[in-house]
Every structure is written in structure tokens, then in C-alpha cells.
Write a structure and sequence with these properties.
Elements (H helix, E strand, L loop, with lengths): L9 H22 L4 H23 L25 H26 L15 H18 L6
């Protein structure tokens, strides 16, 4: 049997997404162009966690009826005081990234689509990582990781 790790909180889920994004990004740089299977696994993992994070951080299309957690409802993440200006800034920056990448990633990753057939898709992962990193840092300042 295999299981996903316990996250212990909604904030823990976001921590997991951030850690996995970084892990996949580093893994891609380690394998380079060698090993199609391993490279594809890191690439798809990066895209999946990137997509999850931009949608979470932007708060776009929040579906409470589906159990979504996002910055559309930031109180789900903390018992502490919320700094609205900080949250608005994170959401605005993440929304630009969401608009730029979410649909493309979904077409190529979410399920079998016509867009996945034929020619491959080029992804500038360094650029994508550099775009989301400041938003992640801003999020982590607003919602510090809980002490163990």
C-alpha cells in the first residue's frame, strides 16, 4: 500500500505544493535531457504543482462546493489576523501568472486532449519558476509555516 503524506492543515497542503514544485524543478535540472521517463515525471510534477499553486494563490474560480482551498477564502489558512492588502497583492500577482499558464497546462496535463497529440509543447520552466517564486515568498511572509 502507498499513501499520500498527512498535511495536518490547509496551510500544510500549500506547504506540500510548494515543496513539490521546488523538488520537481531541482530534479529537472539534475536529469537534464537524460532519461525520458524520469524527465517527464519531473516535468509533469512541476506543471501539476505550478498549476495548483497559481490557482490557489490567485483565488480564481474558487469552488467552495468542491472543497477548494484558496486565497479567495484566506481565513481557511490561519487563526491569526489577516492582512488584506498583502492578500490582495498576492492574488493580483498570481492572477497574472494564472492567466498566462493555467489553461495551457490544463490542456496538456489534466486529461487526454487533442492538444496533447502531435508536436510536443515547450515550457520555459526557469521563467515560470522565476515568475511564481516571488509570489510564493510573499505568501510565506503573510502565512508563515507553523512550527513543528
Amino acid at each position: 500500500m502507498h499513501s499520500t503524506p498527512s498535511k495536518k492543515s490547509n496551510r500544510g497542503t500549500v506547504t506540500y505544493e510548494i515543496e513539490m514544485l521546488k523538488f520537481c524543478f531541482q530534479g529537472l535540472h539534475k536529469v537534464g535531457t537524460k532519461g525520458d521517463g524520469e524527465r517527464n515525471l519531473y516535468l509533469e510534477g512541476f506543471l501539476l504543482h505550478f498549476r495548483n499553486l497559481v490557482r490557489f494563490l490567485s483565488g480564481k474560480h474558487h469552488r467552495e462546493d468542491k472543497g477548494d482551498t484558496s486565497l479567495a477564502r484566506p481565513a481557511m489558512l490561519t487563526d491569526g489576523e489577516l492582512v488584506t492588502d498583502q492578500i490582495d497583492s498576492i492574488r493580483a500577482h498570481a492572477a497574472v501568472i494564472d492567466d498566462k499558464y493555467f489553461e495551457d497546462i490544463s490542456r496538456f496535463l489534466q486529461h487526454c486532449t487533442l492538444a496533447r497529440g502531435g508536436a510536443g509543447k515547450e515550457w520555459n520552466l526557469d521563467q515560470m519558476f522565476n515568475e511564481i517564486s516571488p509570489v510564493i515568498e510573499e505568501f510565506e511572509r503573510a502565512f508563515p509555516r507553523p512550527l513543528a
